[in-house]
């Protein structure tokens, strides 16, 4: 009974939050609310200029002490993409985000990724952040050429990849649990 009641309360919160957010007349908020994880892409590589814009927005993310401890690799080479495309949602391009191995700057790398995904959304591109392929890309012999092409600094690790491309789907929003937000007065 408690589960049902909690689920209903969460759904009411989600519906209320969604109704409130649909009234925003702010481009940034509309972009945030419209972004979804895209898992199907058109077979069309993203133009270099758009990838540059996405990267520029990423490196303008906040970072601890402005140290910018991240490394970004954007894969445009379609021959290289062919080696990993199946595991990366068949995206035509990938963004590989790396941070120091010690883990102290993983949050900074996350902020960088969010900036890039929101920028991609505003440019009509779809994205999907992925951590699943990281182990294969960093250890499997089949991914050796791909891995070596990234030229990741020795003291850095690949944290995640962002599949990026022109979307071939428009996924609906998944419910959000507004009950997780508490206002302390």
What is the topological layout?
Elements lengths: L1 H20 L5 H8 L13 H12 L11 E5 L2 H7 L8 E8 L5 H17 L3 E5 L3 H6 L4 H7 L5 E10 L20
Antiparallel strand pairs: 1-2, 2-4, 3-4
Helix pairs in contact: 3-5
What does this entry show, briefly?
This protein has helices spanning about 1-20, 25-35, 50-60, 80-85, 105-120, 135-140, 145-150, and strands at about 70-75, 95-100, 125-130, 155-165. The chain has seven helices and four strands. It has a four-stranded antiparallel β-sheet.
Description:
The two termini are 31 Å apart. The chain folds into two domains: 2-33; 37-165, NADH Oxidase. It is of the alpha+beta class and 185 residues long. It is globular. The longest helix is centred in the first third of the chain and has 20 residues, at 2-21. The protein has helices spanning 2-21, 27-34, 48-59, 78-84, 106-122, 134-139, 144-150; strands spanning 71-75, 93-100, 126-130, 156-165.
Q: Work out the count of structural domains.
A: 2
Low-confidence stretches: 1-17
**Gap between N and C termini:** 31 Å
In the sheet with the most strands, the strands line up as 1-2-4-3
Structural class: alpha+beta
| Helical residues, percent | 40-55%
What is the CATH superfamily classification of the largest domain? NADH Oxidase
| Approximate shape | globular
What name does CATH use for the topology of the largest domain? Answer: NADH Oxidase
Which range does the strand content fall in?
15-25%
CATH class of the largest domain: Alpha Beta
Overall pLDDT metric: 89
Radius of gyration (CA) equals 18 Å
**Total strand count, please?**
4
Sheet having the most strands: 4 strands, antiparallel
CATH architecture of the largest domain: 3-Layer(aba) Sandwich
């Amino acid at each position: 009974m408690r589960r049902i009641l909690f689920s209903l309360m969460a759904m009411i919160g989600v519906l209320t939050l969604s109704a409130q957010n649909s009234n925003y007349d702010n481009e940034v908020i509309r972009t945030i609310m419209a972004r979804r994880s895209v898992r199907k892409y058109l077979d069309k590589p993203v133009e270099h200029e758009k990838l540059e814009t996405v990267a520029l927005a990423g490196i303008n993310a906040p970072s601890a002490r402005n140290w910018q401890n991240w490394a970004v690799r954007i894969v445009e080479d379609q021959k290289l993409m062919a080696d990993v495309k199946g595991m990366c949602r068949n995206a035509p391009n990938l963004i590989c985000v790396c941070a120091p191995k010690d883990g102290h700057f993983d949050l900074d790398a996350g902020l960088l990724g969010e900036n890039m995904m929101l920028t991609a959304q505003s440019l009509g591109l779809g994205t999907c952040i992925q951590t699943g392929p990281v182990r294969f890309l960093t250890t499997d012999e089949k991914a050796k050429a791909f891995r070596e092409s990234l030229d990741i600094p020795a003291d850095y690790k690949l944290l995640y990849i962002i599949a990026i491309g022109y979307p071939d789907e428009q996924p609906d929003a998944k419910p959000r649990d507004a009950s997780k937000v508490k206002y302390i007065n």
